[in-house]
């Protein structure tokens, strides 16, 4: 049992920040004498729909800005480095602000200095905000969005720093307070400084950390020990992180999520990580909030909710849920409603396209596999409507039961912004929502709490029971009967070495058990599904059947059946 009170806002000045709005259609000039820095910033903003031009020579900037005005395609924003060979950023800004035709250009400073004494200098030069290097792309997006929003509302004198961001002031997702129930984490990192920083963050958050310094050691260690998650540096001696990840996922049969630690964040790097079997990636230097948030995303069951005294809500945002499965849709809708969201449901891609032309949504959750029109095709059609300015840009998150690198790549290539695994888990869902929407933080006073300590996700099981109503007990009995039949078929398929049949049964068990919250059973079935899919795709002459996984699957079902019998009696 719990009750909640909204936190009081700081007084007297109002918070100038709102949710991140659409950046599509803005024109931005990026000025930096270091080509890599400029190209990375350009690539990231372009992925958000911003039209960018990169200029390496500061002496050319005034001419570029003036020519853009003459050509009736003026730049809305310019992101300018501070120290450059020809003209420093502050001098360049003063020139821009005293040149009539280009003085309205919004300016953001990039600087390697963290000294707050420079703030007034940048503000006096005409900047509306500044960011420190190395550039963090989430901060760049947030800065451009919030500065532009305020300029559009007439706040021309606004000056914003990273410390003004809501995430710094309120800890928007409570990342710094995240604590875990002793997950076992392998850290593969050869740099001692990065090692020390990561170990301190992880151990303080309750993680158990094992460290190796190259890819070969990582492969060997995962063959000996089952880890809950792996943090993998991409560039290491003897064997790099890409090869190590590929070996761990394909040969060691590890289903632990692998998070890449990389100094680069280009689209090619991202795709290379996914193709190597990695699940996600973080850019270095390691930052505490991003690291803990990512771990919470992939290990939601290890998040120690007892440590949280805040509740995250996303009140009154409009969400489109595109899902053809009635039960999945109802369960997802209930979770989203519990988080304060206003949900509209579409059953297929055609209905989704119709809905976005009638309602301005803040976020779309899109199932990938649907009749009439699938999620990726629907996403491509929605992006065409945005390009034609028929509708405004809206982020789209794929709902997928698959976790293979090829499936993730297909989502990204199709115009989808991110993806989340089905069935939805509340902790993962909240983390995903926090990427695109600004939450409301409310203080939670826990009076009494029941903790379900078993292999079930209590939120999913509760939702399923609520949806089924009087039919709950009957459906659970059917579930047990159907699974006994499936295991009989699985035994037969195993004896006959029918890898395709085993793959199909594993997929069915994974999806069905997850629907009622039997997560242990679902996770083991997922491992079996992945293993058989790899063998099917490779068309191996000799079928190697993972007998130990099948044994684990049977044990997990026995435990599941015992728990379900207790639930219905």
Automatic annotation (TrEMBL):
Residues modified to 4-aspartylphosphate: 81, 233, 367
GO biological process: phosphorelay signal transduction system
Modified-residue entries (Phosphohistidine), positions: 507
Record's bilayer topology term: Multi-pass membrane protein
Residues of the HPt domain: 468-567
InterPro entries per UniProt: CheY-like_superfamily (IPR011006), HPT_dom_sf (IPR036641), Sig_transdc_His_kin_Hpt_dom (IPR008207), Sig_transdc_resp-reg_receiver (IPR001789)
Subcellular location: Cell membrane
GO molecular function: ATP binding; protein kinase activity
A Pfam cross-reference name: Hpt
UniProt keyword terms in alphabetical order: ATP-binding, Cell membrane, Membrane, Nucleotide-binding, Phosphoprotein, Transmembrane, Transmembrane helix, Two-component regulatory system
CDD domains: REC_hyHK_CKI1_RcsC-like
Entry superkingdom: Bacteria
Response regulatory domain boundaries: 27-148, 184-299, 318-437
Listed GO CC annotations: plasma membrane
Endpoints of the signal sequence: none
Name this polypeptide is given: Histidine kinase
Lineage of the species this protein comes from: Bacteria, Pseudomonadati, Pseudomonadota, Gammaproteobacteria, Cellvibrionales
């Amino acid at each position: 049992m719990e009750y909640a009170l909204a936190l009081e806002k700081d007084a007297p000045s109002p918070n100038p920040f709102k949710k991140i709005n659409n950046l599509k259609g803005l024109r931005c000039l990026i000025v930096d004498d270091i080509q890599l820095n400029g190209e990375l910033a350009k690539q990231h903003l372009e992925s958000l729909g911003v039209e960018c031009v990169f200029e390496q020579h500061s002496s050319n900037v005034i001419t570029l800005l003036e020519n853009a005005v003459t050509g009736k395609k003026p730049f809305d924003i310019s992101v300018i480095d501070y120290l450059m060979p020809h003209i420093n950023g502050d001098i360049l800004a003063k020139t821009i602000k005293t040149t009539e035709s280009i003085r309205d250009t919004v300016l953001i400073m990039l600087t390697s200095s963290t000294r707050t004494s420079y703030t007034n200098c940048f503000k006096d030069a005409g900047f509306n905000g500044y960011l420190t290097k190395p550039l963090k792309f989430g901060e760049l997006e947030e800065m451009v969005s919030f500065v532009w929003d305020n300029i559009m509302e007439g706040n021309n004198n606004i000056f914003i720093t990273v410390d003004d961001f809501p995430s710094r002031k309120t800890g928007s997702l409570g990342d710094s307070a995240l604590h875990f129930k002793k997950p076992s984490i392998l850290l593969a990192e050869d740099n001692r400084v990065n090692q020390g920083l990561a170990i301190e963050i992880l151990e303080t958050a309750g993680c158990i950390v094992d460290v190796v310094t190259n890819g070969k050691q990582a492969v060997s260690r995962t063959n000996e020990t089952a880890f809950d998650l792996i943090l993998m540096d991409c560039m290491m001696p003897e064997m790099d992180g890409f090869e190590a990840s590929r070996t761990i996922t394909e040969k060691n049969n590890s289903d632990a999520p692998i998070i890449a630690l990389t100094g680069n964040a280009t689209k090619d790097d991202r795709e290379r990580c996914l193709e190597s079997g990695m699940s996600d990636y973080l850019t270095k230097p390691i930052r505490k909030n991003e690291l803990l948030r990512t771990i919470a995303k992939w290990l939601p069951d290890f998040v120690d909710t007892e440590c949280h005294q805040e509740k995250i809500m996303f009140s009154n945002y409009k969400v489109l849920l595109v899902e053809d499965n009635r039960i999945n849709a109802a369960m997802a809708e209930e979770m989203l409603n519990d988080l304060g969201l206003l949900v509209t449901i579409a059953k297929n891609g055609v209905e989704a396209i119709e809905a976005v032309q009638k309602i301005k949504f803040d976020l779309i959750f899109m199932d990938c596999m649907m009749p009439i029109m699938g999620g990726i095709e629907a996403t491509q059609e929605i992006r065409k409507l945005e390009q034609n300015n028929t509708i405004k840009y809206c982020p789209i998150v794929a709902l997928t039961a698959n976790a293979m690198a090829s499936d993730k790549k297909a989502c990204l290539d199709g115009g989808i912004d991110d993806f989340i695994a089905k069935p939805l888990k509340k902790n993962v869902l909240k983390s995903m929502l926090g990427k695109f929407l600004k939450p409301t933080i409310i203080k939670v006073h826990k009076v009494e709490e029941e903790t379900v300590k078993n292999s079930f996700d209590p939120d999913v099981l509760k939702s399923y029971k609520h949806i089924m109503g009087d039919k709950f007990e009957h459906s659970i009995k059917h579930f047990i009967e159907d699974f006994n039949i499936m295991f009989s078929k699985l035994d037969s398929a195993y004896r006959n070495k029918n890898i395709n049949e085993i793959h199909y049964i594993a997929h069915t068990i994974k999806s069905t058990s997850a629907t009622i919250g039997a997560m242990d059973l679902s996770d083991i079935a997922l491992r079996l599904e992945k293993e058989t899919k790899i063998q099917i795709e490779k068309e191996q002459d000799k079928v190697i059947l993972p007998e130990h996984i099948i044994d684990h699957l049977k044990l997990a079902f026995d435990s599941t059946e015992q728990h379900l019998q207790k639930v219905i009696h």
